[in-house]
Specification:
This protein is mostly helical and 82 residues long. 84% of the residues lie in helices and 0% in strands. Keywords: Membrane, Transmembrane, Transmembrane helix.
């Protein structure tokens, strides 16, 4: 079961990075919809939950910290846009 937990944590961390990166670099900031912004904020939260399920402590806290930093960054960006 451990490889599946690790894979899920890494997958959602990558989604947390790639989706907002795509969203904020390819679209005009004024044309980004509210649904896209909510999804960009939701993915790091889910990534943090999956990262905390990883049994290896070093990887667990590294991925959780990355996801929390991404959440704070995109929360600031969302507030700045609206």
């Amino acid at each position: 079961m451990q490889p599946k937990q690790t894979r899920n944590g890494i997958t959602f961390t990558l989604l947390s990075i790639l989706y907002p990166l795509y969203l904020f670099t390819t679209k005009d900031p004024g044309s980004v919809s509210t649904t896209s912004l909510i999804l960009a904020l939701f993915l790091p939260i889910v990534g943090t939950i999956f990262a905390l399920n990883i049994p290896e402590p070093k990887m667990k806290w590294t991925l959780a910290a990355i996801n929390l930093i991404l959440f704070i960054l995109f929360l600031y960006y969302t507030i700045a846009l609206r």
